[in-house]
Structure prediction request, 235 residues.
Amino acid sequence: MTTSLHHYWHPLEAKFKANGISTVAAGAKAYMKNQSEFFGLKAPERRTLQQEFLKETGLPDPHQLSGIIINAWEQPQREFQYSAMEVLFKMRKQSTPQLITLYEFMITHKSWWDTVDYLAPNLAGDWFTRYPEQRDEIIAKWMKSENIWLQRACLLFQLKYKDRTDAPLLFSLITKLKTHKEFFIRKAIGWSLREYAKVNPDAVRSFVENTTLSGLSQREAMKHIGRKHVDNTTF
Prediction:
């Protein structure tokens, strides 16, 4: 059963409905493996309409933020989830310690790579820099959850950290997940290493050459740097 749309989102819904194209919606739904419904807006147009909406309506009241975001998350059309994430990103400087609970809800509900891959580096990653004292406890919880999307978020939250990346943590997380059979975990391992290789290729090369990774993880990790050694994959 669909939750009634919060009044905050009504003007945005009107814009999305007026500009949606059924063929675009069908194509997006197929591309996303039928995980969600769509209004049928390409990303640039959706962002333009969202900017118009925010200019006219403004950002949500911070005291009502969680409820408004969860309401968008409960809607069938994926564009609402994209808009909710981007609203949160605009409000990230108003972050509170409790906001990680909302991010966890978003990661674990209607989970798919398109939302998790935005949430992890842009929202969770930012939150961890604001509340570093809570980072290790949350990461340990997510890793133990056995939820692949929380585990993927653990691997990806540092994507934008560059030379601020906690390499020992990243390598430790990868080591714990390196035998995971799930495609989305193996892909995230390679992606996280590939990004860190942009600032520390020697460390990534050494780690890959001394760690047994899946072929997918290894190929992704080494995509833009050379390696001296033979393939280490065994599974």
In short: DSSP finds 13 helices and no strands in the chain.
